[in-house]
Amino acid sequence: MRKIGLTGGIGSGKSTVAKLLEKQGFCIIDADQIARDIVEPGQPALAELVKAFGSGILLEDGSLHRGELARLAFSSEESTALLNAITHPKITAETQRRFADAEAQGFAEIVYDMPLLVDNGLHKDMDFVVVVDAEPEVRIDRLVRYRGLDEDDARRRLGAQLTDAERNAVADMVIDNNGEIEALVPQVDELVRRIRLP
């Protein structure tokens, strides 16, 4: 089983590439989705977070109030470390479980859609690394237009991540996503061809 690492800076369009790969029959393991799943009601991580940060992080229906948790968890280095100590081991365990499950289902290649793949050094565990790249101004425009961020927040988030050059330096293939989706399709087709070369 080959592991394909898919990454890119915020607003680069990585999720769009993941959807195109899914349409071509690839199994996608989405790191952001795993991070959401482990804090669903009834999951041990949610109970541990409530114990650590208080019941104010819950909405009326018992689900996680993400904004309130973020406000508390990122208020100090100690709080952030506590959040990470609770969530990271569970994310890692669930990720490994999903990889094993995909392998058991007979998938020859698995795409690991992970925003911080290079930041966390996880690209070293992949057989092939794909970086989706777009100019900073294009990404900021997308974040403001499609995700509702204000421009200052979008710039701050971009600034907190690795530089494009650092990400691109470890890529086996860089996908240029400065244009429309029509320009992505042939690049994804080329990616599939390269991944599936014998």
Structure description:
With 198 residues, this protein is of the alpha/beta class. Helix content is 53%, strand content 13%. The protein has a five-stranded parallel sheet with strand order 2-3-1-4-5, with helices on both faces.
SSE topology sketch:
Blueprint lengths: L1 E7 L5 H10 L3 E4 H7 L6 H10 L12 H8 L3 H28 L4 E5 L14 E6 L2 H12 L3 H10 L3 H5 L4 E4 L4 H15 L3
Parallel strand pairs: 1-3, 1-4, 2-3, 4-5
Helix pairs in contact: 1-9, 3-5, 6-7
Name the features.
alpha/beta; globular; 5-stranded parallel sheet; 9 helices; single chain; 198 residues; 5 strands
Summarize the structure.
By secondary structure, the chain is of the alpha/beta class. The chain has helices spanning 14-23, 31-37, 44-53, 66-73, 77-104, 136-147, 151-160, 164-168, 181-195, and strands spanning 2-8, 27-30, 109-113, 128-133, 173-176. It is 53% helix and 13% strand.
